[in-house]
Amino acid sequence: MAILHTVNKSPFEKNALDACLRLAAKGSSVLLIEDGVYGAMKGTEKSAAVESAVGDISFYVLGPDLKARGIGEDKLIGGFKVVDYNGFVSLTVDNDKVQAWL
Amino acid sequence: MATKKFMYVNRKAPYGTIYAWESLEVILIGAAFEQDVYLAFIDDGIYQIIKGQDTTELGIKNFSPTYSALGDFEVSKIFVEKESLEARGLTIDDLMPLKWEEEDDDGEWIEKDSITVISSDEMKVLLDDSDVLLNF
Description:
The complex is a heterodimer of chains A (102) and B (136).
Chain A: E1 3-7, H1 16-23, E2 29-32, H2 47-51, E3 58-62, H3 63-68, E4 81-83, H4 85-94, E5 97-101
Parallel strand pairs in A: 1-2, 1-5, 2-3, 3-4
Chain B: E1 5-10, H1 19-31, E2 36-41, H2 65-69, E3 77-81, H3 82-87, E4 99-103, E5 109-113, E6 115-118, H4 120-129, E7 132-135
Parallel strand pairs in B: 1-2, 1-7, 2-3, 3-6
Antiparallel strand pairs in B: 4-5
């Protein structure tokens, strides 16, 4: 049963991303949205945890939330796919269920 | 009324919550009362002044250009904590170049930078020296 995990909190303020990475099974998908998109940036104190999971988990980040926050795609950790709202819907449809880490 | 040092402490990212926008509104209101205004950007608060914000696809107001207008309201003492920048892999070059204008002895208007990057130790002193602390 494939799960789409969403994280909408900044990794520097809440432990939602940590919990997600700890509990997401191999082969699942993680989509960062809203303030969660800061977790997709490379070169931060939180980057290493995401980078070490890139092989096991498919990472996505919502483009409109990146743009709103002034984060260029050149700032992202390698392996992230940027999706738009239609991509968000597709991920929801393609997975069996959604786990929202609030 | 004696002038007091008002310190606005900003620790939240923009858009995800309303704190950043509310802070900006209060800062602008406060500026009208001719107090000595200081702004601190700490932790996720530094994300508020990242350059290149574009909220078109979110359908909500991009209030980041308003920070550039703060200089016109004589809000020019803006401090960013170095440790917060480093934790997020950012430098001052990732921030909006906020400016203000000061008149020199010859009546010429000189453009100056409003943002100063300071260490946690320097921030401690700044907080200590403030008369009023407003947190967002």
